[in-house]
Specification:
Length: 540
């Protein structure tokens, strides 16, 4: 059935898909226009195979039913769907690759809260399993601005609870267990017997699934296959509103886990994941591991896991992520890459075999096993390293700093600012950049200052205006950029980094260690002065 429609403004995918208020997605034609734009902008759905699933948030199932009917009416050959329309983002990426699918549609607004008054999102991934490239998302947006009709089959809903094959017209709908293939992939990468032996020896862990999609994955893998004590995984059932939780694994939102890990009788290891399972936070007994440090430690120790025994080809990090991983890459004699924020920028490096491990300060870590960041993968790699080294998280982290020095690091977020105000801060600092190199600030000399531009070494494409960075001679940095994932006003992110070579000064409190950089940032950008805010809303 062909239904006429009119373009809807603002269907521009951000850092990670199109993310809007749930009610916007539920409004007339909104989802359908966008899905048709995806099909149209990627050469049509005729004869193609897709993977479909989401993080279980409110409207997940209804949206999946609509997309299935649209795929059928657009001539798709087959759609592989996670049972209950559930799939974590990394599991979807794996399924696209394993089945040689033409792409995948993932229903998620990642770590944003879910529910009728919260957020919903749609991400489109390409045949390599990774987020669509800028060129593709631009084409989808362009198409959304001229669309005049969409196609949808006038058929009954599919029974999404039933594993196996069903049909809409001649399109096959193949419903699969969302966990099975992913769990097998993890077993191929990590030493499950060794980790199982560690749990059997009394190792205790807490995994907070935050009422989101990793619950079933973590239960099956950690408790089921690795023998972690029953109850190790908490908030394990995916709920449409994530039980009112904000499923973002950082010290602010995963405070229950933080309290437990810093309390009396803390388990040996703690971890949390986000709405769609691609993010992770890792905590030791009384010690928090920043995502930037986590990437560096994983890079330095990955060879301890069977899947990475041959060594790494290179390590990539997003520009605002601390430079800790670069020092590991240098020591290993492998490539270090600095990309703009957004996992899609790692895709070419992974596809071309230049990088094996990637990571971002925004709680994302992953490798070339899929083309998304992967929360549980990071947790399992940590577990494998802990099982091999037989040291605590704290011991491993401290030994790492002694060897490589420590990149003190923190991100300060100023949320829901009026867009003009956020732009004023950015424009103010951008204008000052050319005059900064050679000047002194915070007792250091600024060695370079620019608006980060990236030239992809594989396909030569360029991305400009990816964040303002001020770099000091001692390796310390101040970075300022606007978030690309917010749904309300603008969010300004200030990333602060100070390098301490050691052996002294490796054990300071992070915010205290960064105090000179915090003052320098205010002097440079005047965030508080311009926004009138007294301080950041979230500190990670
Ligand atoms: C999503 C992307 C990440 C990115 C993050 C940053 O999670 O998948 O790759 O790092 O957004 O978001 P921001 O709000 O800083 O643009
Ligand atoms: Zn996510």
């Amino acid at each position: 059935m062909r239904v006429t429609t009119r373009p809807i403004e603002g269907q521009k995918p951000g850092t990670s898909g199109l993310r809007k208020k749930t009610k916007v997605f539920m409004s007339k034609g909104y989802l359908k226009n966008f899905i048709q734009s995806i099909f149209d902008a990627t050469g049509g759905a005729e004869g193609k195979t897709y993977v479909l699933g989401g993080d279980g948030r409110y409207f997940n199932v209804e949206a999946a039913q609509t997309i299935l009917k649209m795929a059928a009416a657009n001539g798709a050959k087959r759609v592989i769907v996670g049972q209950g329309a559930l799939l974590s983002t990394p599991a979807a990426s794996h399924l696209i690759r394993r089945n040689g699918a033409d792409g995948g549609i993932i229903l998620s607004a990642s770590h944003n809260p879910g529910g009728p008054d919260a957020d919903f999102g749609v991400k489109f991934n390409g045949p390599n399993g990774g987020p669509a490239s800028e060129a593709v998302t631009e084409a989808i947006f362009a198409r959304s601005g001229e669309i005049d009709a969409y196609c949808i089959a006038d058929e009954r809903d599919i029974d999404l609870s039933k594993i196996g094959m069903q049909h809409i017209g001649c399109m096959e709908v193949f419903i699969i267990d969302p966990v099975a293939d992913y769990a097998r992939l993890m077993e191929s990468l990590f030493d499950f017997p060794k980790i199982r032996a560690m749990f059997a020896g009394g190792f205790r862990m807490r995994f907070d699934a935050m009422c989101a999609v990793t619950g079933p994955y973590a239960k099956e893998i950690l408790e089921g296959r690795l023998g972690a004590a029953p109850g190790t995984v908490v908030h394990a059932e995916p709920l449409p509103d994530f039980g009112g939780m904000h499923p973002d694994p950082n010290p602010t939102w995963a405070h229950e886990l933080m309290d437990e890990m810093f309390g009396a009788d803390a388990p040996d290891f703690g971890a949390a994941s986000d709405g769609d399972g691609d993010r992770n936070m890792v905590v030791g007994q009384g010690i928090y591991v920043s995502p930037s440090d986590s990437l560096a430690v994983l890079a330095a120790n990955a060879h301890l896991a069977p899947g990475y025994r041959a060594g790494l080809k290179g390590v990539a990090r997003s520009m605002p992520t601390s430079c800790a991983a670069d020092r590991v890459a240098e020591a290993l004699g492998i490539g270090a890459y600095e990309t703009p924020t957004g996992w899609k920028f790692f895709g070419n490096l992974l596809d071309a075999g230049r990088a094996t491990l990637c990571g971002e300060e925004s709680f994302g870590t992953g490798s070339d096993h899929v083309r998304e960041k992967d929360g549980l993968w990071a947790v399992l790699l940590w577990l494998n390293i802990l099982a091999e080294r037989k040291e605590s998280v704290g011991e491993i982290l401290k030994a790492h700093w002694r060897k490589f020095g420590r990149n003190y690091y923190s991100r300060h977020d100023y949320e829901a600012l009026p867009v003009e105000v956020a732009n004023e801060v950015m424009d103010g600092l951008r204008a000052r950049l050319p005059g900064l190199p050679g000047t002194d600030l915070a007792g250091r000399t600024i060695s370079s200052a620019d608006d980060f531009a990236y030239a992809d070494p594989v396909d030569g494409s360029t991305s400009e205006r990816q964040g303002l960075r001020v770099v000091f001679g001692d390796g310390s940095r101040i970075v300022l950029r606007l978030s690309g994932t917010g749904t309300e006003g603008a969010t300004l992110r200030l990333y602060l980094e100070r390098y301490a070579a050691g052996p002294d000064g490796l054990d300071q409190e992070v915010q205290a260690a960064l105090a000179p950089m915090i003052r320098a940032a205010e002097e440079l950008a005047g965030i508080r002065a311009v926004t009138g805010r007294e301080g950041p809303d979230v500190v990670t």
